[in-house]
Amino acid sequence: MTDAACPLPRTHAHASVGAIPLRLAVPAAGVRGTVLLIHGRNGAPDQPHMSEIARAYLARGWRVAAPELPHSAVLPRSGPPSDVTLAGHAAAAGQVLAWLRAEYPDAALALAGHSMGGYATAALSREPGLHHLLAVSPVLSGPRMLKARRALGPEAMDELAREAPAYRAELEHADATPALAGSVAPAAVITGLEDGLVTPDHARAWFAAAPGARFFTALPGQHHCPEGSDMAQALAAALTALDA
């Protein structure tokens, strides 16, 4: 699922972590910390729902590090979208996380992820010293994803197998619950009440698995990529709960 792109606000620098392009945005004054903003499957840093998250962090003095992760259909130079997997997405995000630790060794570090990026956030959540976790429409387990996809009908299942066969196979067993259950970082979850891909129950399971869970909301009228004024308000409340 993709949206028309809009620019990542106040982008001042570009970098690369190996073959992964990285967009860096800094707040107008004073940096409180760095958040690694992890997009979902077929996502990109400058999609409207991702920019919504970036703006919320920038307004609170957080540097935003937003990588263009491999195998996204909307990032032509990222490699074949058919090769995407949850494990590969999390591993690529982990490379960027390690780079950020080395580049900004004294900065507070947080993770924020959308959809498959929420799975990566959970998978990386036991990294030491994380300030907090923010998950938007987050994937926790493959079987839950398959249940929702099957509810959309056989055509949706066939499409998934055709578009990303390794990802389809991985969904039979992938589960970030053990990793998230070992995290000590405060966590917040925002989801859309109408989301049919990562259902509200799925998002709530992500919240329930996080020992540091502090804030959960399911926004009426919002789907898989929440944005707009109610999303901005939810982000403000979530970041307040996380002391961000």
From TrEMBL:
InterPro entries, A to Z: AB_hydrolase_1, AB_hydrolase_fold
Domain of life: Bacteria
Stretches assigned to the AB hydrolase-1 domain: 34-125
Cleavable signal peptide: none
Stored Pfam families: Abhydrolase_1
Entry-linked Gene3D superfamilies: alpha/beta hydrolase
Protein's name in the database: AB hydrolase-1 domain-containing protein
Provenance organism: Marinibacterium profundimaris
